[in-house]
Specification:
Strand content: under 5%
Largest sheet: none
Order of helices and strands: HHHHHH
């Protein structure tokens, strides 16, 4: 249904907005965040930056946040909703959020991000080497 893909895109856009130190209120004023953001960054730094560079940076930023959280002990057990959302029945008697649907969506999200089924270390070939993490 595309919801996971939309969520990944929104997260990546938020990473770009935060990294460019832009107010989130202007996000809808920018027609092409990656293209216009790259132009802004190039104008400020004098470095050639493309929309594709900025999009790749957004993805890398998200991976870095995930790796930091993993190093701090975050795991798939924490990538959940509060239990009450998965067990508290609605007026119709069903859980507020179907646990099977939730866990399936979480797995889909992990795949979209290139993470393993445990929601851990990115599985894209060479990604960790390209991030040049200081351990």
């Amino acid at each position: 249904n595309g919801r996971i893909e939309q969520m990944v895109e929104i997260e990546d856009q938020a990473a770009v907005i935060d990294s460019l130190i832009l107010c989130k209120f202007v996000r809808r004023a920018i027609q092409d965040l990656y293209g216009e953001g790259a132009a802004m960054l190039s104008a400020v730094t004098g470095l050639p930056v493309s929309a594709d560079d900025l999009r790749a940076s957004a993805r890398t930023l998200h991976h870095l946040k995930k790796l930091f959280n993993q190093r701090q002990g975050w795991s798939a057990q924490e990538d959940v909703l509060p239990e009450r959302f998965l067990r508290t029945p609605t007026a119709g008697g069903e859980p507020s959020i179907d646990p099977v649907t939730f866990y399936s969506a979480r797995s889909h999200y992990y795949r979209q991000r290139g993470w393993d089924e445990a929601g851990c270390l990115p599985t894209e070939p060479g990604l960790l080497a390209n991030l040049q993490l200081n351990r």
